[in-house]
Amino acid sequence: MAKTTKTKTTKTAKKSNIKIIVGLGTCGVAAGALDVYKEIESYLKTNKIKAEVTQTSCIGMCYKEPLVELITPETGSVTYGDVTPKKISRLLDEHIVKGQSVDEWIVLKEGDEGYERNFLKKQYRIVLRNCGRINPEKIDEYIKNNGYKAIEKVLKEMNREQVIEEVKKSGLRGRGGAGFPTGLKWEFAYKAEGEKKYIICNADEGDPGAFMDRAVLEGDPHSVLEGMLICGYAVGADTGYIYVRAEYPLAIKRLKIAIEEAAKRGYLGKNILNSSFNFEVKIKEGAGAFVCGEETALITSIEGRRGTPRMRPPFPAISGLWGKPTNVNNVETFANISWIILNGADKYSAIGTEKGKGTKVFSVSGKIKRGGLIEVPIGTTLREIIFGIAGGIRENIEFKAVQIGGPTGGCLTQDQLGYPIDYETLISAGAAMGSGGMVVMDKTSCMVDIAKFFLSFTQRESCGKCVPCRIGTKRMLEIVTKITRGQGEEADIDLLKTLAENIKISSLCGLGQTAPNPVLSTLRYFGAEYEAHIKGQICPANACDELVALNVDLLFFKINPNLCKNCGLCVKHCASGAIEGSKEEGYRIDESKCTKCRVCLTKCPFKAIETI
Amino acid sequence: MITLTIDGNKVHVPEGITILEAAKSVGIRIPNLCNDKRLHPFGACRLCLVEVEGARGLPPACATIVSQDMVVRTNTEQLQSLRKNLVELILSDHPLDCLTCEQSGNCKLQNLAYAFKMDSNRFVGEHFEGHYFSVDDTNPLILRDNNKCILCGRCVRICEEVETANAIGFAKRGFESVITTPYGAPLQETPCEFCGQCVSTCPVGALTEKMSLGKGRVWECEQVVTTCPYCGCGCQLVVHTKDNQIVKVTSDVKYGVNKGNLCIKGRFGFDFVNHPDRLKTPLIKKNGEFIEASWDEALDLVHKKLSEVKNKNGPNAIGGLSSAKCTNEENYLMQKFIRAVIGTNNVDHCARLCHASTVAGLAKAFGSGAMTNSIGDIADSKVILVIGSNTTEAHPIIGLEVRKAVKHRGAKLIVIDPRKIRLVELSTIWLSQRPGTDVAVINGLMNVILEEGLINKKFIGDCTIGFDEVEKIVKKYTPEMVEKISGIQADDLRQAARLFAEASDASIIYSMGITQHSTGTDNVLSIANLAMLTGNIGRPGAGVNPLRGQNNVQGACDMGALPNVFPGYQKIDNEDARKKFEEKWKVKLDDKPGLTVVEMINAAREGKLKALYIMGENPMLSDPDINHVKEGLGALDFLVVQDIFLTETARLADVVLPGVSFAEKNGTFTNTERRVQRIHKVIEPLGEAKEDREIISELSRRFGYEMNHHTAGQIMDEIASVTPSYGGINYQRLKTRGLQWPCPDSDHPGTPILHSQQFTCGKGIFHPVGYIAPAEEPDKDYPMILTTGRILVHYHTGTMTRRSKGIEELCSEGCVEINPKDADKLKIKKDDWVKLTTRRGEIKIKAKVTRRSPVGTVFVAFHFSESPANALTNSALDPVAKIPEFKVCAVRVERA
């Protein structure tokens, strides 16, 4: 037996001289990483090169996917971005066969501070510590990185009260959006009377533009399981549910593998690590209703009923799943736990601000150069994230706003870029931490249109149970839509405000209570745009099609030479031959020929067509 | 008690109530739309949001429990403006057609619109005043107009939480949400029970009674609270009348055992009252034809004929059938007429056919033959054993209590029934016994309880006698032996026995599945044994609870409409009792017990009984072996029938006297939990019909005996004076609520639970009972078992429900329920015509192939004169109670 193991080790060691790691998170897969992976395998086969090809998940640099990391003894680790199957033969020829890196494709290089290093360097990665670094389908890789050490410590050295105390001391607050102190929540469930208790991991991430939880589940599922184990031990639950949306097939697949492997190794099941603690984890797939991210609706859905929120109290900690005490935390919250146990509450609480401890993961998307996942200490400024880490606005167009907190958050402006990101600051500014979605907009975005987009999302996702959310958001959307069509009246602004405030204070659950936020925050910071739509009958960003069409006769179209890349696309599409010029000397619009059909405006990839 | 401040006033209220209830108790009304006392709080309408100092946000008053020193504000400017905005939103999605809406005047949304002066709406969007949904009128009883629906969810919740039928639910979501049946099927194709609880809770006009459409709105109608004329539950109805017509029946959460709930019969079965078939004048049969007659002609003739028989053949050649449908007062007069005026004890009524064995059996064991506990405390039981009772169909409101106990209070349910009745869905254990083997099954349960040491020794020792004899006989009934007799698996029986015996409070509910056997009294005694063995008597949540079948069958028995007892079960052969009545009634009384129902029919056939006076009964459909009944009635010299319709029985009469329905008279009914409740006149008698008490009094006067009562209340005073258990009951006290007997004096609050101190007869008496097979068992010629009973939507012989248009439309014919396996063997398919033959007769009936029926057994309901189940049933009698064996006979089933 011992002999076999030895041979195996040598073989692996030999093989691992060259290691090729392909990012196979959903972002990578969507960018074509599976084809890249296949191409690498076939290249190695054809060229009879021995190398270990393995996978990892999203490291956060979604903007550069597919990412391929090559590790050789000679070059160390080098990560390439925007890799396509076509690039593989040159890449591997040069890097592996010749031992020379292909500099123009490098994203990260070991020991080199250049390239995209800034993207990672300015982050503080606790939740994402393993993401993009380990193979999430191999429990050993998790264990190698201190995995399951925290539960071991808990079971051997700590009683339940101590665990809760440690989490309380860390200052960790729920990362699902509400920011309720996690330790306190655990304590409620711990103190609740009842033989049977449950814990639930809320993985029903539904905000448009938010993918933090997906990345964690795909990239480091064991860290979530370990967090759940520790929580189960602390509150006295023997069963945990992961409520994950069915639209995350890869996350579900990896969770299943992780649960199976953890059970095989004795981290799940009866008498975990020879203690008296038993814990099992079940996966419940959601059916795509956004409102099921609300904890009481989520519980109702697990029970097999229509996923609508219930009133609180009673809070789930007292009467949750099937009427039993239940603790619900989201993915990111659980992923913090083992780090806190191993590194200590003090180290955790040293990060962040007075009221917001630790780090927060944001998914940054929109008109940004480096769209992806970013984990920073709470209190980092918006400017640092958007311009420092995410690299600023694409095509260097002017920044206009950032929507934080998902569809129930709010839009902030240039003026607030200096704000530190923490729960309280964001709330008072009219936005919200939410689950960490951050959508960046440039000046080509119409804020009324943006408000309409988010509102239409929440309105569509309202469960319909309570009056203000069901009818109120519908009426709000109708009014906003009316405004974007140029049919708004001056009284609409006040009506919107009153209605929005009433919906906020009277809705049954968080969805309705926050649904008006995008409208309220845009009214607050971009009130002039609303006025322009209503009084001036124009959409300053030229985004509201109906209004633009309405006013098209009054407009003149012009090409902004600073933005124009001379690609010639507008010329191709212009039916009246109104665009003159050449690739070399640039283009301009002949007003006398222009029929104002707006086709150039919609086709220009660089937003170089402007109206005056 | 809790002290809190509401709108600046210090308020003292009980713990555990909501802010909404607390406010209401001091006269502060907080608007709401989705709240109903019968339901768990839902929090959807948001109108009841209030300000609570220190609370996060605005808590809903409907769901927030009061706490000490809480400071609540219900009516601030902010709240009012919020509420107005919410009402405006609701109205923006609701048609403003109050002018024609059935619910106008009774619509909570309309009231709110008025209160908030909603004369315009700023939210003119989708659905506004639009008619987006088509009105669902695919069933005969309930109209659903989803355009008016405000999605408060009350109908969905009441269907789920109270009725547990789950016939409707929400579909789609958000603004598109709509309440519908699964796949939009008509209600008839869902588990809907047509109780109309959904209609009762709908705060707007989305759900209305189809039969009442256009007949009158709330302000045009007079509303009177009265007692339901159907089963023994004794529900309180609110009857709406206009122009001497019943417009509709509703219910009020404030009144009665039903707490606002009703069943299909109570809510929708009222058309019979104003039905054109109602008898409006007396009829005299001349040359085989009925001729309309005056009251004087008819009553003179009755007097003449009865006098002739009395003079010629003696008083015992005359019999009287009183009525479980009539009031206590009328039953009292009827038995007084037969006893004091005619001079015989030949008086009985259909209790003989339903619970005679209960009266006999429980009187022997406990000293009192009635339900020991109250309907309301069934929900306190930890384990409920339902045996021989299809509770949800025959006693729907009691069925709701069972459902509540199981669904909301965690009670365990054991169902012992050959058929897979609806309660089986909720049961922990279902034992399907071969019909007629109940004694063996109960003895088997007791065998396990004894063997496993689960008996209540203290109770047996302190409160009972005769245990040793029972112990001896029960020892023989091992689960294995019982399995052979009953077909119930030994282990299932063991499990049920343990569950029952280990419960702190276990109640037994039974009905005609126990009583209607040739061993009916034995069955009842066995149940009494089981309850005493485990000490489940005299406490809330425990008890032996026979469910009485008719609205006033309990009362008719209480009133002495039985051949062996005076009112209050005072035995006629008891010298003192008889003397008391002789003094009160000022006549000499017969001291020998009279004939029972079936005995009277037999005596008529034999020529011993010459004349019969039947009030409000229809033996031609309700009694066993009706061919035999027909012969008996045909052999009489004189038959007088007093009824509201020309029933199958009335057609055979020489004189027919038109009585009135429950809606046209005053009086009392006593429900199954011994609760005496008022009924009130809601319309004037139709045509020349007279109240039954008047008819009896006038007839009596012709015999020279004055009854001397001017009102029903005066009769009750006389009843109280001679009936100890009714001693404290009078109309003054019944004004506000019913009283449960025994209520011996006017200060006594009534008795919700019998035998709580000791048994009525001192100590409870165990009676050893052995298993005796049914009188007729399947054989080569008649290879299957026929069992009979009721179905939910119809009642008794159908005289009332079959004249209720909507109900009749829903179900107009009977069927035989047959197991798919039997149906396959006999090549019978759904809706095939089937011939059922027994030694006594045959009927043709349509087949319903269903697993409700066990293999080898078929079921037929007895409501339908077109396919009368009782042409088939066996009139074999229980030797003690003389109840016939309706529940088992041998039958041959073949394709017709």
Structure characterization notes:
The complex is a heterodimer of chains A (612) and B (896). Chain A contains 26 helices and 18 strands. In chain A, helix 8 (160-170) runs antiparallel to helix 9. In chain A, a hairpin with a 3-residue loop joins strand 16 and strand 17. In chain A, 42% of the residues lie in helices and 15% in strands. Residues 1-16 of chain A have low confidence and may be disordered. Chain A folds into five domains: 12-117, Glutaredoxin; 139-349, 3-Layer(aba) Sandwich (Rossmann fold); 359-445, Ubiquitin-like (UB roll) (Roll); 448-534, NADH-ubiquinone oxidoreductase 51kDa subunit, iron-sulphur binding domain (de novo design (two linked rop proteins)), CATH 1.20.1440.230; 555-611, Alpha-Beta Plaits. Chain A starts with a helix and ends with a strand. Chain A has 612 residues and is an alpha/beta fold. The longest helix of chain A is centred in the last third of the chain and has 18 residues, at 467-484. By secondary structure, chain B is α/β, with parallel strands linked by helices. Among the domains of chain B are: 2-75, Ubiquitin-like (UB roll); 283-354 and 552-740, Rossmann fold (3-Layer(aba) Sandwich); 356-395 and 440-546, 3-Layer(aba) Sandwich (Dimethylsulfoxide Reductase, domain 2), CATH 3.40.228.10; 784-895, Beta Barrel (Barwin-like endoglucanases). Chain B is built from 29 helices and 36 strands. A seven-stranded mixed beta sheet of chain B has the order 13-12-26-25-24-14-15, sandwiched between helices. Chain B has a six-stranded mixed barrel with strand order 31-35-32-34-33-36. Chain B starts with a strand and ends with a strand. Chains A and B meet through helix 18, helix 19 and helix 20 of A and helix 2 of B.
